[in-house]
Each structure stands twice: as C-alpha cells, then as structure tokens.
C-alpha cells in the first residue's frame, strides 16, 4: 500500500469493503419472493415482472463502463460513497408505492450497484494486491449471507405490513454503510489515471482472454439471475407455499456464499482454475436436472445450485484480478466484464418470463438454463488458464497473506 493510502488502518478499509458489499446483491435479488404479489397488485404479466429484474442489469451495462471515469475525476473512495447515496435513493423511491416509482427506483438502485461492482475490485487491487482472491471471496460471502437473510425476511414483512415495507427495509444497508465509509473520504489524493476505464474500445476489448473472462461472467450471471428471479414462482407452482419458497430462495442465496470459504485454498494450490470453473458449472447443471426430476427435495437442488453458480461467480470476480497485471487493466477489464456480462444476463429474467407465458410451465426454462451451464463449462476452460491478458505469460498465484 502506498504512503498516501496508509492514513487508515487496513482493517478499517477491509471493514468498509465488507459493509459496502452488503448492498451489492440483497436489495436487488430480494424482490424475487415478492414478484407474484407485485404482479397481482399491478396486473403485470410474467415478462413485465421479469423486467423488474432485468432493469437494474441493463443499468449495470450502461453505467459500468463510466464508473472508472468517475473514479478518475473524484477518486475511488468518493465515487464509491456516491454509489451508496444513489442506492439509498433508489431503495427509497421504489418503496413509495406507484408502479412508475417501483421501476424508476429499481433502475436508480441498479446504477449505484453498477458503480460499486465495477470499482470495488479496483480498490482491492490497489490496496491489497496480494490478497485479491481472499478479499474477493470474503466480500462475496458477505453478499451471499445478506442476500439469504433478505430473501427469508421479505415474505414475513409482507405478511406483517406490505411489499413496500419489505423493500424499504433494505434502506438501512446503504445508510449504515455510508456512515462507516465516511472516514474513507479523507483519502482524497489526486486519483491516478490507473483507475479510469475507457467506456468502450481500447486494447483490452481486443483480447480473446478478456472476452473469455467476460463471457464466463455473463453466462454465469444469465443463469443466476434467470433462476434467482423466478425460483420462488417455480417452487410455488411445484406445491410450496410462498413463505416456504421465500425460505428456499434464501437457502439458495446462503449456499451461494459458502464457496467463498472453500475457493481461496483451491485457487491458491491450483496451477490454474480450469478444473474449478468447469466443476462449478456442472454442479449448476446437476442441480437444475435434479429440480426438474425430483422437486420434493428442492432444498438439496437449490443448495447445490447456489453453491455451484455462486462459486462460479466468485471465480468470475477473481478472474478480473488474476488475469490482469495492473490496476488500470483491472479497471478496464472490470468495466468490460460488468457492461457486456450484465447485458447478457439482463436477457435472462425477461426470457424466462416470456417462455413461461408461452408454455405455461417451467420445463423449457430449466432446459435453457441447463444448456447455458454446459456452455459455461466450455468457456471456463479458456478463462481459467493461468495467463495474463497483456502478454499471455503464465501468472503467479497471489499470496493470501502479506
């Protein structure tokens, strides 16, 4: 860590990273157990309801390429603080009641999450270059645990109050995070151009390895958001109550956090990550087959899905740091991965809604996601190679401790 970045104790910086991570998934995915209620309230079809999940993903792909420019102008710390304020505004707006506020607030929330998703890896790369994999895993675990609690919490809050209160409860996360993040704002030395990613083009966009990392992220996100958005509705159609479906959705989110406890030592010991990427993709495939054939033990399949696809998400995030050789490259690859990857994933919830409206069952949906898991495994063979984007030379695995 450079001298200009030592004004805060590293433990406080890590704490700031972790509390920031609580905002990056839970406020977004916890709407899924409420989709049926929201559909009934506003008379929406499945595709319209799916657009509530797609909307922030589209915002991700629009905003992500410009997050690096925001960091260059104002600094990483201030850009991330601004993201928290934007997220708080989005959560507050979508909880006010009208349908327009629900959609606009969801889009605003997505903009804040996009900035955080893009810049947090750069902050870790800059301040903790030897602990990229470890910190990526830890903040991914944090995201998963908070998402699990949120998914399990929203249905009881719905029964006790209404869907607006259920969604509004997440406002506490960015507010508390902003308070903890405030000391970071003292670190306002003139930001380096290293943190700026071009909004489009540039050498990294012509790298085959960069595209493999981006596709691995995008396909994994497609499968995750397509299933996560509609899992409660799928489970209700399979005979589970709305409360049970919400709890199982939370179980899936919790299971997605568990790989973070196991991925770090595997990445450390492995010569590359090809076997790990393929294995996690195939775990997602098996879970979807199991849910289709043996729905009575859904808890097994949603747990396996969360573990497999959640683990692949951690690996995808780690690839951003492991396949680059500087903070500038990390920011560039992060912007490319987030924008293109989330554009791909944005089609998932709407496509699932359209398929369900057309077929009136979930079998076709599950089979499409199974096929995508197979493709994910193939892409993982390329993205998992231990090489850098710039020279394609073998990379050294980062140490997990200073």
From TrEMBL:
Gene3D superfamilies: MFS general substrate transporter like domains
UniProt entry tagged with the keyword Transferase: no
Keyword terms: Membrane, Transmembrane, Transmembrane helix
Matching InterPro entries: MFS, MFS_Cyanate_Porter, MFS_dom, MFS_trans_sf
The UniProt record lists the keyword Membrane: yes
Domain Major facilitator superfamily (MFS) profile: 11-388
Pfam families: MFS_1
GO molecular function, one term: transmembrane transporter activity
PROSITE patterns: MFS (PS50850)
Transmembrane segments: 12-31, 51-71, 78-94, 100-124, 136-159, 165-182, 209-231, 251-268, 275-294, 300-320, 340-356, 362-383
Stored SUPFAM superfamilies: MFS general substrate transporter
Protein name: MFS transporter
Lineage: Bacteria, Pseudomonadati, Pseudomonadota, Alphaproteobacteria, Hyphomicrobiales
